[in-house]
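Good morning C.,

I know you're traveling, so I'll keep this short. The sequence:
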Amino acid sequence: MRIRQLKMFSKKSSIRKKLINIIILSCAFVIVFGISIITIGYIRYIKQDIINRTIMETKLIGEYCVTPLSFDYPERAKEVLEKLRFWPDIIAGIVFDNKGKIFAEYKIDGANTKILIDRNNKNIGTYHLFEDDKLHVCSNIFYKNMQYGSIYIILNTKITEKIDKFLVLISLLMFFLLILAYLVANNMQKFISKPILKLTNIAEEIYKKT
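The tokens, ready to paste straight into the viewer:
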């Protein structure tokens, strides 16, 4: 009798563990898949948001440089670029004339102002390029369908830092959800295992009688 009780307990425990494992694995798959989609979407969103804002600001600054370029006032263009200091993430801002020569320039101390975008393409319009955490934006300066030059902005996006912070938060959320999944699975298995164990007991009784 004692041995039979131990076997029944072992069987019940085994079924419960299997049910808990199945529920947790299912929940873990859904959680990991969902969070992966959210993470990919977030990274794309912040990159596109930074690109859109930088392009908009670059075009705006370029418009302010139309007059200095028209009347050959590099000092005035320099004053416009100096306002970039109020945007701390800007590493450099360069205005080129139509001949591709530097008309005015602003850069923070020690900044690497290596040009990565071809400015000689007249059809380029506005173009952007990522170099690690740096965003390069080049925009041709047009006014009334006439090109006066181009403006080149280099921005430190700090995107890696932002993604790292997001991943830490996501990891904590995932850990919390997995614990919650375990607690839910532990309670759910009681309702699922009871009819299974009942059927198992009935099957055993029938087997013994036959």
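Safe travels,
E.
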